[in-house]
TrEMBL record:
This is Uncharacterized protein. One of its GO terms (molecular function) is receptor tyrosine kinase binding. GO terms for biological process: cell surface receptor protein tyrosine kinase signaling pathway; intracellular signal transduction. Residues 189-200, 223-235 have a biased composition (Low complexity). PROSITE patterns: PID, SH2. Residues 251-342 form the SH2 domain. Residues 203-219 have a biased composition (Basic and acidic residues). It comes from Adineta steineri. InterPro entries: CEP152/SHC-Transforming, PH-like_dom_sf, PID_Shc-like, PTB/PI_dom, SH2, SH2_dom_sf. One of its GO terms (cellular component) is plasma membrane. Keywords: SH2 domain.
Amino acid sequence: MVLNPSEMTNTDDESRWIHSDTDLISGHGVNYNVNYIGSVEVLCSMKTLDFDDRTRVARDSIRLVCAAVGVALRERRKPESSSPVQSMIATQANLTHSLTPVQLIISTEALVLKRENDSQILCSHRMEGISFASAGEHDTKDYIAYVAKDNMNKRACHVLSCVENESLDVITTIGQAFELRYNEYMQTQQQQQTHEQQGTLKSSDRDRQIQQKSEDNQDHFISSNNNNPLQQQSQDKWNTMNSSDVYKEDWFHGKISREDAEHLLNRSGDFLVRESAKIPGQFILSGRSRDQFKHLLLVDPEGVIRTKDYEFDSIQHLITYHKSGNIPIVSADSELLLKTPVRYVK
């Protein structure tokens, strides 16, 4: 899942959350009182869209559903009247259960919508089936929307209205739940890999096999008998993400802090890559643009190595593409040009 606003902005793993982790993983979840407004069918995979178009899909869905139930909104200028985004959602809203007061229950397992008057569950969307979430804008700032697949594998954008000024809290909580689920997955896979290596390989054979894999660039991080849907859909991408090759690069500095990275970036264009100390499998590109420091997450929640505009086969591919081509990395509020790698000194 991709969360707005937190993809390629100037953030890293030191985010502050509203709730304790145990609230979201205890099985009970965190509850918000919201109104279910309706949904809009999404006609394409969110993976095919860049971040701006995903945000536009969510916010256009909010406006479409609100208009369908008679919520008066300020007319928005539409210079993008021919924008392809319009063809990415249905033209008619689904108003089943529209304007129903519900409890939104957020946990690492799912987002559940439970009707307030009789506790009937209207929707239950597992976390691995949710691909994007966003708050509204301007006159829809108290609304949120999230894109999810149902049991029939159909994709829809669900629109909720929140208590005044609470929409950002709801979006942040969804982001926290997804990050925790992602961490659980990565830890499970690391444990599984360690267990399989210890249980099936003798020491000398293991060393020889690891060396051969490194030479062939064929590290297999996910086991082939994987039955978890989240693991299945991201298997190839997370194999690439966890390649040990990145540890050999001279611009890779390991698990150093944000502050330590900034001390090493002396000139505009300096950059390095570091590993998150808190999120297994996450890597951060730290760079300097004039007098500003940028810290960009390189691995999205679906395990894809990417910038705002492009996806890459590996972190090395990302660095080479932008540095050799002198192509700036565009984030939400700025551009970062990779000129000089800060080399790790052992």
